[in-house]
Amino acid sequence: MFKTLPDGRYFVPTEYRTTILKLYHDDASSGGHDGQFRTYYKIKARFFWHQMKEEIIKYVRSCSVCQHIKFKYKPRVDKMIIPNQSQNPFEVVHIDFAELTKRSDLNLKTKSFVIIVDEFTRMVFAKAMKEDVRSLIHYLKQHPKLPFIKKIVSDCGTVFKSNALVRFAEERQIILVNTSPYHPPGNGLAERKIRDIKKFIECYPNFRGGWKAALEAAVKHENRSYNNAIGCSPNFKAYGKTTLLEADKTIGIKEQNIHDEMHKTAEKQKEYYEKMKFYYDKKHFEPQQNICEGSLILVQCGFKGKKLVVNGPYKVVGLMKTGGILKNIIYEDEKGNEKIAHITNVRLYHSRKNEESSSGDVNEL
């Protein structure tokens, strides 16, 4: 049994820390392969040990599943624009459709879903459905938050430009806002959540109950996970309550053991956006990778359908520079052949030492 601290959290001995990290990062019901900050705040609210932040960041950064599936493109050269945010829950929502797979010879049906994101609380709602206006209107009519909605932000898809949806909005005095055509960042709030949900489903390809059950689990995960923009989880922002995770029930943690709080006031949230914009505009496009001979890298090798193919890790055997600037990487593939990849298609791979080392058994917690 862990020692209980004065604030209600548990102190984790060294032999159980890897087990806690696996439960709250790798596991589908409580981890979701979250990023560094989400995993840190999730564990920080329940446990404590010395230098836990550094250990959590190192563990997440060295996760092989995350590094392969969350491989990122080099961003475009755009300056960040901070829009005015809604100040009331469920007053402004962002809506979009997304597809996991299209109908083809290999797939009998198109796997698509609609997503709704509240601008104020970042609460996510999603439902598996085909992309047509009748299905969307039927879903909105049954949605419990419909009476609070005053504005809907969407892209310029045919569903969102249809006369039926316009009439539906006019009857309920809802303003429809369409973002710029062929510019996904215009509806970035929905696009980001779609990306996170897709990555969650991709991390757990054999999820019990199929992709629809995985979609439901992904939405629950998003709503109970720490959101850096609002300084807490969407559930906590909307209802002021902390949600118990499956791992909490396994270990025996209760709500009074979780030290959760609102980390950002309105003023701090504004400062956060301004600081984020400053560093984004100043440093976002500067090279961040410290690749040298002997480093391990992941290489983007094109697409298979719509899925990005990332191979590796491979060992770097040479660097090609032009005017002192690193342009290409020479690496050795699994067959021992030397190949060349452009720097924009390469990401540094962080290996996890002693990954399979012994750790405390969860059944002993």
Automatic annotation (TrEMBL):
It comes from the Eukaryota. One of its GO terms (molecular function) is RNA-directed DNA polymerase activity. GO terms for biological process: DNA integration. It is an enzyme of class 2 (transferase). Its EC number is 2.7.7.49. It holds the Pfam family Integrase_H2C2. InterPro entries: Integrase_cat-core, Integrase_H2C2, Retrovirus_Pol_polyprotein, RNaseH-like_sf, RNaseH_sf. Residues 85-249 form the Integrase catalytic domain. This is RNA-directed DNA polymerase. It comes from Dinothrombium tinctorium.
